[in-house]
């Protein structure tokens, strides 16, 4: 990729990323959020983040993988259980990552 | 509270997710170098675009020589969720000066939203000074992301195969740690389960569109479940009220 191409990629990605994040803040003093939207928006983090990670956990090479030797599934389940049970963010992340790596090296 | 203390609130709330972000940043840098991209390119992307999952998708597309418009429009779609975060935060930023809103817009990532939004919700920070906690969180993630990108580029050149270690699992664990505290009421469970099902069913849609469609389905499910629950509660309340008034009549 040439230097000019690189520049265009960065510029293009910057414009759309910053644009999406800033457009409502730019008009924030004029935007009035209808009540139904507030009720819907509180589901956004759960909806978006679950949609990002579930395929990473369950799908490998276009195939559903729910076998016990799938390290993504084991690490994901461990983090989920610890997250629900202990409600401590750091513990959830560390336990999930540790289980994932143990499973990955145990089954490889 | 002093300015420093308020910024520190945002940093402290971000620490667990910063720990989760470190492997992810290292992976980004090492992947960029394994794809033969220049170190400057990786660093420019992390410092100018500052969007973890979109950066991964983008360098994947670059490595298969995708055209510019595909890279930019995919970035747009992957980042559309931030529009929804912004919509939720509008009520807290509307009285702030424009230069702060520009900075906060630039720094609006999943992790800062997840760290700071609950602080507004439970009253730890308020509309007047809460932006300092937000900016503290943003700066902490910004420094971490750029330093780990640089280290990843350097170590990716020294340690070949680092990109196959599975470091991206750190993102999965981080996102799970953001999701689980929400799972206390039935509508949130329904939203999570429908997002999980829909995202797996729709995983092969082109350009990551499955993510967007599945998120919209899950938000709708949560919304209608919440509405139904509230109506059920309201009718139960009015039913119990009418029984009480009957009891009163009998007593009279």
From TrEMBL, chain A:
Keywords: Membrane, Transmembrane, Transmembrane helix. It holds the Pfam family AzlD. InterPro entries: Brnchd-chn_aa_trnsp_AzlD. The chain crosses the membrane at residues 6-28, 40-58, 70-85, 90-107. This is Branched-subunit amino acid transport protein.
UniProtKB/TrEMBL annotation, chain B:
It comes from the Bacteria. It is a multi-pass membrane protein. Pfam families: AzlC. Keywords: Cell membrane, Membrane, Transmembrane, Transmembrane helix, Transport. InterPro entries: Brnchd-chn_aa_trnsp_permease. The chain crosses the membrane at residues 7-28, 132-153, 165-183, 211-229. It is found in: Cell membrane. GO terms for cellular component: plasma membrane. GO terms for biological process: L-valine transmembrane transport. Belongs to the AzlC family. PANTHER family: INNER MEMBRANE PROTEIN YGAZ (PTHR34979:SF1). This is 4-azaleucine resistance transporter AzlC. It comes from Marinomonas pollencensis.
